[in-house]
């Protein structure tokens, strides 16, 4: 028994010891210390999203929306580390404390911001190419119907112009570093969230987080044959870890006409007609036709977004609606956009999966551009309506005569329903800590359904016998993009390098259908019942010009392999190289594939030991690059092939044989198996700097030179051997040279008052060197005819779209024109020929400047954007007709004729050439952020008022001196017959964050 007792005591002792160990372990566990605090920036503002952790461990947390953090540590003897992008890492010893508030110090923005470089990102300091970035906080405010106007005046070298005035249905025209093609497109490639070829109209302006503009060839070469015009990369807003945040942005706005032409009133017209011996039809009225065509529009926009994330998943969703009215009677636009973005991580954060979906719907009613032109033409003594309420028309009304512009606007319907879908899914996997694979698939789908109808009540429809005309068309584009990349990065002591290899496949299919008919017995159908028109089935009718039926389908494919290598040594000696090999189905059989290469390097001089004592230089970097890019965006899918169709092309497609009509088919254009892309070779050298101890002044200077070879165009062909006298081919050379300057200054940076200044300036010199080669001969040729012959020219040795015409020498005693001939003699108009024409001046601004001043005082903020275009000539085409009394039967006159007028047939010459230089106060915004007490619901509230296109200072007599940027868009010319007024807009906005 004693043994049993002994064993029992021993067992109980073991159990007791085990219990003691468990208790001690439990005490050790429960003895952990919880630390907590708040993270602030230098201004005392709490910072959400900051990573706070215990150094040397995995313990940590991320600050919430109020900047608070809390987590447990084993003791209070360690070091707490706080990190946040753009701020200096902070290490703070705990020294026994459990309550620790932390303050992070911002590093210079230019050094720490992350730049999207195409298929990746890079720290700004390490970039060796010319890339400009604009963040959402720096966007222009006000009524934004086109996403590009968010950054107007913000990027050196990027010119943006609303060539169609303030028409809410028009898109901005833009170019980067000047024209890069004569007959192709000069517009940059747009990349949205990594999807090349994205449509700006797909996304809502409020969803955009940033723009990264790849300006030089070494940056853009990664996109190969579509990047000659540069690349604009748009990044939309993503979700962020933290509690759900709901944000509402809304505005209401109105517009007024910024400038209108002063034409003769009815009374002035009657008196002036007597003075010049003209007997007009007197309708007995005194009509202000421009006023009759305009209204006070009301525009409004609303954006609701939800943003948040828990654990490894983040999300962002938004709905945007914008309703626009044009300044004219009927133009409108209703835009609805919905988007969602989801990102999640798995497999210990090795797997990253994201989905972005954006869908937009655009309902548009288009403007009647000729209406405003006709408002300047029509006799001001005519009334708008007859006594019975019907529209007044002259008995002989017809196109080109004195038709009623109000009736034409009301009786013409031109609508479009457009939908755009952009879906992108991306899968990234970290195979190794230094090796990551990325695969993405994108679908872009655009659909158009348009309809137009001209009422049978319009007098011209009655007198011509057309009885109303209707048309309908559909168009659909489907774009599939598959891309895959493999990225390897490694650091070996002071050497850092990364290598990217990628594959890209893009296929686009376009199809459409269109039809038209006339002779309708009622307007009730509009364009919804084309079969109701009699002309489609009754061949005995005299006027069947509105009858047509057609369809089409086209397809093209782009296949690419690309790679990029970057290297830096000691974080100061930088190098990058890119290669893209690309094949395009649009090109000729002999030239479907090409290589696009780029190299660039940089030296961060400020990190050298000999610069350490230079206190006023915080950062100094020099960089240089060379890149080759291509351009095939202006090509249609089958222009290298001999397409078959009705033959001979341009005829009624057949022959008479033995009294019988024999239809025929044959080639519709000359084939060219050697058709290839335009190629741009670009050199760029740049300097980036941040000066003074606080880094209050920063900026960059770039110089570039571009040579665009193998210009695409129609050139003369040898017949026979070729079927037609023109062939679409490559020949010629164009150059661009320029300088860009960017400056950012924190002039005042106090706790209560801040003043920031941003300046961008650029100079560009464009020249067409040649439009021929050994095989194809091109000759200088005229463009831009507004009814008086060509006013501009494409010619070797001059800028694209240079003004070309007669040199004005005065007026003869009989009022006729006098011009200088090539010998410098004054001669009459009858004694000059085309050989006596001169090159008269550049039509595109050579200098573009932008200056932004931003102020904040306590809760108030105020900003002003001033823009300027200098160094170009402009022509107000309306002057050729509305200051000329020989046109008395077709136009009203400007009031300037009361002092002086022209009495000779309209002829373009240097007499009509004006100084196009301008200075605009383009955007003024005043905001107030309401102090909000701590609340579970409302986080922030801001009200703002904004004015756009407020003041324009110019000597140009036209409506607006911004007159186009790309060749063949009549740069520098304001048309006489069709235009849309430029307006000032005034906006009240509210932003609430919940």
UniProtKB/TrEMBL annotation:
SUPFAM superfamilies referenced in this protein's UniProt entry, alphabetically: Carboxypeptidase regulatory domain-like, Porins
Domain TonB-dependent receptor-like beta-barrel per the UniProt entry, residue ranges: 358-949
Span of domain TonB-dependent receptor plug: 126-231
Taxonomic source organism: Mucilaginibacter conchicola
Alphabetical keyword list: Cell outer membrane, Membrane, Receptor, Signal, TonB box, Transmembrane, Transmembrane beta strand, Transport
Name used for this protein in its record: SusC/RagA family TonB-linked outer membrane protein
Endpoints of the signal sequence: none
Membership in a protein family: Belongs to the TonB-dependent receptor family.
Topology within the bilayer: Multi-pass membrane protein
Lineage: Bacteria, Pseudomonadati, Bacteroidota, Sphingobacteriia, Sphingobacteriales
Molecular-function annotations in GO: siderophore uptake transmembrane transporter activity
